[in-house]
Amino acid sequence: MTATITAELAAGIAEAADLLRGRRIAFLTGAGISTDSGIPAYRGEGSRTRADPMTGQRYLADEAARRRYWVGGHLGWRAFASAQPNSGHIALAEMERAGIASGVVTQNVDGLHLRAGSSRVVEVHGTMRRVLCLHCGQVFDRRDIAVQIEEQNPWIAIPENIALNPDGDVAPETTENFVIPSCTVCGGMLKPDVVFFGEFVPVDRFRAAESLLRSSDALIVAGSSLVVNSGVRLVERARRRGIPLVIVNREPTRADPWAHAVLAGGTGDVLPTLKELLQ
Questions:
Q1: Catalytic residue among 74, 89, 113, 125
Q2: What ranges make up the beta strands (E) of the chain?
């Protein structure tokens, strides 16, 4: 038991393990699992308020908004991309290899589950690793777009101390004279392969998440406040099936009344402890 796990929480983890033992577990993760990797959450402890989040409609309609997005995104990209998986990510990957976890549905766009070694990962909100052309459909590696940005904007300087937002964005001091990256195939508008505020999760991604849940006998929500509808919809499907639902989150969530167990602790502490009890 780690020093940050109280006796009360340890007892709750042991009870959850008894409930889950022998079952194939699907995991639904949110920003809270990545805070130990230096990526802040949207809500709760360690979060940063986003007064003006980018929406899909605004991105498409407003060139100034796109310029602001790409400047801020580029300034934060290297720090975001260099984040390392933490003990929570690693515990899930190890549980998958041990046959305990059926896979992960994540609301995060940081790619840390894949880097930790999880192989069945549904990134319902997309990934910052890819950039799409909205005109011809060409797919780019985000690293290649970073090279294009720096070639077209040689004056841009990456700050040493960056106050990252959950999506890797930072607040730029200026966007003046910034050249927005464009598709090198057709010159069309580029957009990161992520779901912006106000956009819907692509149908095929949500179906993949549902498929993973159907192949499982239990669901653990880890590090999500369940404010976003995609997560709530999956929890509702688990509730209708009557399978065990366990929530691991520091703050209360919308689904606490439905859960068979609520573990009010950090994912980096709780998940490795739970893994040891289930092996």
A1: 125
A2: 25-29, 101-106, 121-123, 126-133, 139-141, 190-194, 218-222, 245-248, 261-263
Q: Are residues 55 and 94 in the same domain?
A: no
Predicted TM-score of the model (pTM) = 0.91
- Report the number of distinct structural domains present in the chain: 2
Is there a contact between 76 and 169 (Cβ–Cβ < 8 Å)?
Answer: yes
Q: Which of 137, 162, 194 is the last residue of a domain?
A: 194
117/253 same-domain check: yes
Which residue reads 């966007």 in tokens? 175
Burial of residue 195 (CB within 10 Å: 0-12, 13-18, 19+) is buried
Answer yes or no: 89 catalytic. Answer: no
User: What confidence tens digit (pLDDT) does each residue in 136-169 have?
Assistant: 999 999 999 999 999 999 988 766 666 666 566 6
| pLDDT given at position 174 | 77
Q: Are residues 25 and 92 in the same domain?
A: yes
